[in-house]
Amino acid sequence: MAEIESVSIPEEVPVFPLPGVVLFPHIVLPLHLFEPRYRSMASDALSGPGIISLALLRPGFEPLYHTLNAPIHPVVCVGRIIGSERLAAGTYNILLQGVCRARVVHERQDRPYRVATIDVIPPPSADPPVADARQALQSAVGECVSGEWPQHERWRKLLSAGLPLDALTDVISSDLPVDVELQQALLAEADCATRAGMIVEAVRSIAAIRAARRRRNAIRGSSSMN
User: Fold this and answer.
1) Domain limits at 218?
2) What are phi and psi of 141, to 5 degrees?
3) Which of 99, 121, 131, 136 shows the greatest Cβ crowding within 10 Å of its Cβ?
């Protein structure tokens, strides 16, 4: 059993595979559990340590979705249930807070839902010497993230709040307007300096695409007026 930020992580945890959703440490995700297998998972988790891991389904999962063998990415986010509500229909609303990264080592199939043995990927014990990575992230956001981005003010406040780079990059990764496979790659990257570099590259790429789109629209608008 691992201990992460005073949260005990069992060696075996339930796995909740979802399409299109990546949970990161430090992030709270609201979930509605309505399938019988996941209602059972929620009931068992709430009567135990309250731990569930969230896994991203791999492309092509659809034919196997209702089985215990749908393909998932091996790096998952382990979360703890910090709020729950059992509804009259027997379904659950839960709030799952990401705690840490983990790698799925083995799964067993003796329950209605998936259960995995995991290797926890611990966060750094202290903020490593990553001043260059932090500065690069600060510069990219300052130069590229304009007021047209919904994330503009949130990210500026985060960058000035003095968060450790590990937490900062996880929060921004969760908020980054990119496809889910890139978010999964950010989850799978345990090194926060490397993760910051990936965010910088994504932010600059998004800004360049948006600038090109604005130029193209301006040219079209000018042409239509002539």
Assistant:
1) 131-225
2) -65, -45
3) 99
Q: Is residue 203 part of a domain?
A: yes
Contacts of 205 (CB under 8 A, 6+ apart): none
Same domain, 113 and 144: no
Q: What DSSP character marks residue 62?
A: G
Helix 152-160 / helix 165-175 crossing angle, nearest 10 deg: 180
Neighbours of 75 (CB within 10 A): 21
Residue 126 lies in a domain: no
The total number of structural domains in the chain stands at 2
Answer with the one of 121, 148, 170 that is the final residue of a domain: 121
Q: Tell me the pLDDT of the chain (226 aa) as tens digits.
A: 666 667 789 999 999 999 999 999 999 999 999 999 999 999 999 999 999 999 999 999 999 999 999 999 999 999 999 999 999 999 999 999 999 999 999 999 999 999 999 999 988 766 556 778 889 998 988 888 877 788 888 888 888 888 889 999 999 999 999 999 999 999 999 999 999 999 999 999 988 888 787 777 766 655 555 5
DSSP string, 120-131: EEPPPSS--S-H
Separation between Cα atoms, residue 107 and residue 99, nearest integer Å = 20
Choose one of 100, 121, 142: the last residue of a domain: 121
